[in-house]
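User: Quick sanity check before I run a bigger batch. Here is a single chain. Can you write out its predicted 3D structure?
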Amino acid sequence: MEKNRPIHLQEVICSSQDSKISKQITKLLSAGVIRKIAPRVYSSNLEEPIEGIIRRNLFQILGTLYPGTMLSHRSAFEFQPTKTGQIFLTTSYTKKVKLPGITIQFLTGHSPIEGDNKFSGELYASQKARAFLENLQASKKLGSESKCLSLPEIEERLEQIIRVNGEEEINKLRDQARILSEQLDMQQEFEKLNRLISALLTTKTSKILSSPLAKARAFGKPYDPARLELFETLFRELKQTEFPYREEKNTTPTSFRNFAFFESYFSNYIEGTVFEIDEAKQIIQTNKPIPARNDDSHDVLGTYQIVSNKKEMEITPSSPEEFLKIISLRHSILLSARVDKNPGLFKDKNNFAGSTSFVDFNLVRGTLIQSYDFYGALDHPFAKAAYMMFVMSEVHPFLDGNGRIARVMMNAELVKAGQSKIIIPTVYREDYMGALKKFTKQRKCDTYIKMLQRAHEFSANVYSENMDEMQEYLTSCNAFIEDSDVILKIKPRFE
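Assistant: Done. Predicted structure follows.
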């Protein structure tokens, strides 16, 4: 598109052996319409800094000035200069060329072969298998000065291929690299690549791996790195924030069970298991399902069975392995009636909520294990509760019942510390769901934390020895209303 424009309108013009173009450049330069910004490079942009113009049009410049060269090594993966402005090209000679803000490193190597990609003009880019081989060459320099990515970076790129596209794709890459290594005389590099892939697939020793992500894969515990970044964001914010302690006021068995009833009722209501209050009371009081709604009734019973048991709710994990055991056991109780949902077992296929996709089923176990480190470093019970709830919600480790288990795990942290549990009432559902989605999509956790703090403040006022009295208070706070225009009221209790 750029080269089809009149020359005086092109942001970047490169010198040419075409005499017509050379004369035009000379004329425009004399007239002050264009300026020289680098050897053999001119620009009609007379205002912006030269470094920015060069960087923005770098590949066009390279493809014009150095036809037949190939973007290679780390540049074939990154498609941008390094932090220190290095870009690496393979050609028939070794040379260093400096442009404003950019250093072009020409490396001696094989010309483009079948499978290499034409990128910009006459500039090529190494195909993926070739780029891996190139990045496993020896390099005298380190960091952004090096032509090669670091070994952990290479390992993580290989792990990503397995994570996203499966073992078949990584084996295809290995087969392609084997063939290319013969053409390019890079057999030693292929042997390195083969060892890394074998380690990632756990067919050979994993001791050669250096990346934590790659090691996790090799030990059968691959995880979702993007989710771990999200959990770290939440951890840092929770760690740096002071939260009030809200003592549990439902200290008798009766009041604890009363709260547990509404906790169970609202938690199921959020997930679409809707009963009238009197129907839910009947289920709990009789311990029998309502005819024609057996599964839904058991969902309410299963939730109540867990959250009304104070001894059970005082159990929190002390290790990653215990974490997995606790959530599996509680899930098996919660969904005991839904055999098709594999109660107690992690999901065997991926699940979605609208446009939101959760952690890949192959990465559930590893992601939960990795998340535990941040959990273990938190101190405040509210911080641990908020962290645990989000992790469970974001991973979605089971086929169904994830939201309910997330809230159970949240409240267990609070019960263990003698703090008020949290109810998410019907009127607050959209605030709750919206805050979770916003954190996931925008990577900012402030709305999520504030939402949960408000829910905690509200819930701390929900206490009574009398269930009807507790229901009256909830009603006065708009707790049961399904209307987005109605807000949750927080009404302090006066003794």
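The longest strand covers residues 102-108.

User: Great, the batch can go ahead then.
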